[in-house]
Write a structure and sequence with these properties.
This protein is an alpha+beta fold. The chain has two domains: 1-72 and 204-310, no CATH class; 99-112 and 119-192, no CATH class. The protein contains ten helices and twelve strands. Strands 5, 6, 7, 8, 9, 10, 11 and 12 form an eight-stranded mixed β-sheet that branches. α2 (48-60) packs parallel to α3 and α6 packs across α7 (228-250). The protein is globular and about 75 Å long. The two termini are 23 Å apart. The relative contact order is 0.14. The mean pLDDT is 84.
Length: 310
């Protein structure tokens, strides 16, 4: 389980990995095998949602008072992630994810002037499933100009604010229509525009690209470590290296050029930043900048890293 910061760097989205946890199955932990031990101790079981909640709370402490939007796939986009985060962080945290086609949506309850016995309604009338509403709204979709996958594209979409029982709160749902398919994206932050919701969810794919960068470009998949602690140390150094490379890219004066041209892709790649760093490290000026005699004060690495990103 990995969390990262989605950030626009030189005109393209990038995922800067911040923290990770290895998911260990309950059955494997109960077996008490050697590879289930960290620092000689058997680890306690945590679900993937619990691991994600723990990491997000740790990172959120460095952004006090700032709205945090959690962009995730439909597996994480539920109350198992949202409720504990809202309990701990309050209304500053929001969820942006994809809805399943069979998810039932409800209208916003009307606040009437007449006082009836009992508690007021939390949900309005049943509107239908995502699939049913997509079929009804397709003819009413509007065209939006959205920055998506490296360039501005025209996207047909329809938006409506509804109640979602799985999260027990109002959400803005955006149906995005393609030629033969559609998807439904939701956000608990009602202030986000249709364009922002589509763009942020499209940027979520950079999380998947981040796995490739860590495994292949950094070389984590070729690690020769044999015990759990060594694997954890190696992956931590790998995600730290990936984040530092992206921070370096954000500080460049000019937009890097793409060395290996790919049809339909004009923005630079992660490997291009690695090439620039390697070239700079071999220059004569490198040791003048990175003086080994200088001693840096001891500070929280994560705090310094997040400050550089901001």
């Amino acid at each position: 389980v990995l969390i990262g910061l989605l950030k626009v760097i030189k005109g393209r989205w990038a995922c800067l990995p911040l923290s990770q946890r290895f998911y260990l199955p309950q059955k494997a932990i109960n077996a008490k095998s050697d590879n289930m031990r960290v620092a000689g101790k058997v680890v306690s079981f945590q679900t993937k949602l619990q691991q994600a909640v723990e990491m997000v709370i740790q990172v959120a402490q460095h952004f006090a008072g700032v709205d945090i939007i959690i962009v995730c796939d439909s597996w994480f986009g539920n109350n198992g992630l949202f409720k504990p985060l809202r309990t701990k962080l309050g209304n500053f945290v929001h969820l942006l994810s994809r809805l399943r086609s069979n998810t039932v949506l409800y209208s916003i309850p009307k606040i009437g002037s007449s006082k009836k016995p009992g508690r007021p309604k939390k949900y309005g009338s049943r509107l239908g499933s995502c699939a049913e509403m997509a079929a009804a709204f397709m003819a009413y979709a509007s065209t939006y100009h959205v920055f998506l996958y490296g360039k501005y594209r025209e996207v047909n979409a329809y938006s409506q604010i509804v109640m979602l029982k799985t999260l027990k709160c109002p959400v803005r749902v955006v149906w995005v229509f393609r030629k033969t398919q559609w998807i439904a994206i939701f956000s608990t932050d009602l202030k986000l525009s249709v364009e922002q919701i589509i763009e942020y969810y499209g940027a979520r794919w950079k999380i998947e690209s981040g796995f490739k960068e860590i495994k292949q470009d950094i070389g984590s998949s070729k690690s020769q470590t044999r015990n759990a602690q060594a694997v954890i140390n190696h992956i931590n150094f790998s995600i730290m290296a990936a984040t530092i490379i992206w921070i370096y890219g954000s500080r460049l004066e000019n937009i890097p050029e793409r060395r290996h041209k790919v049809k339909g892709r004009n923005s630079f790649a992660f490997s291009d930043l690695r090439h620039i760093i390697a070239k700079s490290a071999l220059s004569d000026d490198f040791h003048a900048v990175c003086n080994q005699d200088n001693k840096l004060p001891r500070k929280s690495f994560l705090e310094a890293l997040l400050r550089m990103v901001g």
